[in-house]
Specification:
Keywords: Biological rhythms, Signal. InterPro entries: Haemolymph_juvenile_hormone-bd, To_sf. With 272 residues, this protein is of the alpha+beta class. The chain folds into two domains: 39 residues, no CATH class; 220 residues, TULIP domain (Bactericidal permeability-increasing protein, domain 1, Super Roll). The protein has three helices and ten strands. The N terminus is likely disordered.
């Protein structure tokens, strides 16, 4: 006899002429989805993971997932908007002597521009049961808005303030390393994401504005923001962990859910 905790509950529905069966496996705490037809979004093409000539195919698929599913994935709950992407809270402590020694808390952060990602290239490596997928991402511009709380010193400024942070970042490039392995579920192979890590490689400029830096003294606030923008590379060392955590969060959430949603054969034609 199977108890309630291990029962697999099923339901089916049709979306855009695609009939889908969903099995909710409470033991594995995952959602398994099988397609009863091969009618799939036309922007996704199966690529060969073990063929280096398929790197362009993989790059196009990744780019299309960002752009076409920027508002979520049709038929899949739990995948929110990519543009804007929201993070409830981030805490960072940065010490880069002698210019930076600061603690920052960001709340209700909104990031705009991620759906316009361009994938410059991709690579794959197979190693005894798992795959490493790497890709190089370019973003023309990213806009950040957040409530902030800051204490410490940046350059020559001693700061202890709360307010609103807005920032624009130009020509940002970063590398992504994604580790995944095939996983069988009811005879269907899905890709399980084990780990993901990003590494920022390039940024051309940052413009930033922090409100309420000196208890509402607009002249001092304006001068401080001018100093920040003139020394944006120093400021970038404060923002680097914010960006890295944001990208890690975006990509892990996106790829984990999409790969659990789509059987592997729709993305990777040489995965059994």
């Amino acid at each position: 006899m199977i108890d309630d905790a291990t029962q697999i509950k099923r339901k089916s529905f049709c979306l855009n002429h695609v009939c889908i069966t969903i099995a909710n496996d409470f033991l594995l705490d995952s959602i398994l989805i099988s397609f009863s037809t091969c009618l799939l979004a036309t922007f996704i093409k199966p690529c060969a993971l073990k063929d280096s000539q398929s790197n362009d195919c993989l790059a196009r698929n990744i780019e299309n997932i960002f752009q076409h599913w920027r508002n979520g994935v049709p038929g899949l709950s739990g995948v929110g908007s990519l543009d804007p992407f929201r993070v409830n809270r981030l805490r960072i402590a940065q010490r880069v002597p002698p210019n930076v020694d600061v603690r920052v808390e960001l709340r209700n952060m909104t990031t705009v521009g991620l759906s316009q990602a361009k994938i410059l290239n991709s690579t794959t490596l197979y190693n005894t049961g798992h795959y490493n997928l790497g890709f190089h991402v370019h973003l023309t511009q990213i806009n950040l808005t957040s409530k902030y709380k800051l204490k410490g010193h940046v350059l020559l400024l001693n700061l202890n303030s709360t307010g609103i942070l807005t920032s624009e970042l130009d020509n940002l490039e970063f590398y992504v390393a994604l580790r995944m392995q095939p996983q069988q579920a009811e005879g269907i192979t899905f890709m399980n994401v084990n780990a993901i890590k990003t590494d920022i490689a390039r940024i051309d400029n940052i413009r930033i504005n922090l409100t309420n830096l000196f208890n509402g003294n607009k002249e001092l606030e304006r001068s401080a923001n001018e100093i920040f923008n003139e020394n944006w590379r120093v400021l970038f060392e404060i923002l680097r962990p914010v960006l890295t955590q944001t990208f890690d969060s975006v990509l892990e959430d996106r790829f984990t859910k999409v790969f659990r949603y789509l059987p592997a054969k729709y993305l990777f034609k040489d995965v059994e």
